[in-house]
Each structure stands twice: as structure tokens, then as C-alpha cells.
Amino acid sequence: MRRIDQLRSPLFVSWQLTRDCDLACLHCCTESAPGKRLADELDAHEAMAVAQELIRNDVPYVMLCGGEPLLVAHFFAIAVTLGAAGIQLKVETNGQRLDAAMAGRLAELPIRSIQISLDGATEQVYASQRAGGSLAKAHAACRAVRAAGLPLEVTFAPTRLNIHEAEAVIDQAQALGAFRFNTGKLMRIGTAARLWTRLEPSADQYRVFRQTLARRAGSRSDADMELCYSPFSIEEGLDQSLADPPATLLVLPNGWVKVAAVLPHICGDLRRDSLLDVWDAYRRSWNDAVVVAEAGRAISTAALHPRANDWQALASNPH
Amino acid sequence: MNETKQKLHENRTQKQDRTESRDQDRKINWQTPCMDDVSEQVTAQPYIRFT
To answer: For the domain A8-313, what is the CATH superfamily, name and number?
Structure first.
């Protein structure tokens, strides 16, 4: 029996609070950027109702992300509500606004991870990929997180612009006290898809990158920081999901729930449906011929990956 | 997006029709999710990474 068929509700909810962002990253797979807030994003009241649903149904772990979640006016209200109920939290941020005061507020919550994106080891490379961003601010945020006693996680999205600095970023993440370094193949979704010919690393660059990751993962001196790069690609991830779907729901800023981040299908709407209804639909979606066929096409044809952002509701969720 | 909203509405109607069978499903000995079951790998899946 699949794990999702044993669980009454999801283990993990990845909740994109907004599409708004203070950076315009070239590699962004959600197409977030300044002014990109969706017209129908959940307001504070609606978001709080979703939070109560997560609490009522014993979801143990929630990630608050975006866009940039710290731009959302009700971010702390949601985080405090979830945290007070004992839900473990992960916050995914670009770190541009995360100072000591904010880290102190976050430290009062049951935070499992603060994930900060470091997509370059030098200001020039970082800013070329994370347009409008400052590496110095991102590093300062990492130090503020660690000074507040919070667990720091670093993510790195490889592109042709920054892949040559990957090992230097690993060194920096380690020096900053990260417990984990996340990376993987650049995903051809969203803004990255639009700029694909400019961003896609070459096969040779990927080969060197994989060698670097494997070497560093096996290094005893890196034992205090986990290198996480599996599944490495969308294809590998979908393969795993088809065999054993993750007990994870991905909530979009308007409350819609995707079957998988890399697929276009929507299986519910938390503005109207209960979490249990959505969870029920999600579990059945992985048996839906439409979903299985689209996943198969995405595994065999990378050029179809950009379709992930063309959201479409499933016509049915048959038992 | 309007088409997606319409389909979501239709799905909701279908879901109401399935309430009875779902209630029967809930008689299964469901496990309550707990943090110990959360694989850290799950939280580091592609796409979740790159925003």
C-alpha cells in the first residue's frame, strides 16, 4: 500500500504565500518578481482559515515560501498560529530582509529550517542571477539566523551564470553554519524556461558539477553539512513520485493545490474545500490517467516541463 | 484560469456526491501524520528549491 493511502492527512505542506518578490531571479520557476502578486491571492482572513485547517488535521510540518514570504503582511500571524499549535516550520527566503530582529522573532517559533538561497559566491555573479539582490545581505541574513540559534539551510540553483562558483558557495554555506546544502538540475519551468537558452548549463558543466557534489558529499570535512542533490532532476523526481507519491501538498497563493510542482494539475481549492477533501483528491490524482500520462510525457520530454505552470483542474478524481 | 475555476467548481459538486463513500474510507485505520515520518528528502524536492 502506498504511504499516502495510510495517512489521514499530509505530512508536509509547502505553502506559497505569494508570487510577489523583491527580487527578479532569472531562474525562478514560480515566475515570482516585484509586482507579480496574483490578483486572487488569499487574504489574511482566508490564509488564517487555511492555517486552522492544517492545525485541525494534524499536519506536522509546513513550509512557508513564495515568492518572498517575508513580504506578506500576515506572514508572522500565520507562522505564529501554526507554531503555537506545535506545527514545525520551514521558511524559504531570499534573506534580503531577514535581519537580527526578524531572526529573533522567528527564533520564538518551532523552526526546523530557514532556507536561504545563495546563487553565487561573488556579488557580481549573485546579482546577475538574482536581479536586485545583494549577496552581502543574504550572507548577513545567514549570520543572523545562526546567531539567533536557528537552523540554516542553503539552496543553490545552477545556471550557466553561476555553476562555476558552486564549490565556493558550498564552502561559504559551510562557513556560515548551514546544516544542509540543497541543489539539483535547473528546472525548465517559469522564468527559467523563458530564459532557457541563456541559463541552461552545458553537459560538461553539469558533469563537473556532479563530480564536485559527489566529492564533497564523500568528504569527511563536510560531514557537518549534508549535501542534498537527489532527486537531481525533474525526471528522477517524477519517477519516484509515480512509484510512491510524496505525502506532500503544494498550496498556491490563491489556495489552489497542485498534484505536483512539476505537473500542471490542480486537485483542490482550500478556499472552498476542506483539507481532508483536498487530501482525498490528491491521493486519487496519482491514479488518474491524465496525471500519469502527463508525468510520463514530462519524464520523456524535457521540453514539456514549462507546462507545469499552465494550471489546469483535473476533470475528475475517480475512486 | 476561468476554465480552471469552472472545473474546480464541477469537481466540488462531484466530491459532495462522494461524501458517503469517503466516509466509509475514513473507517480505515488511518494513521495520524507525525514529524518522525517526515523525510527531510521530501522537503528538499526539486522546484521547492528554486524560487
So the answer is: Aldolase class I (3.20.20.70)
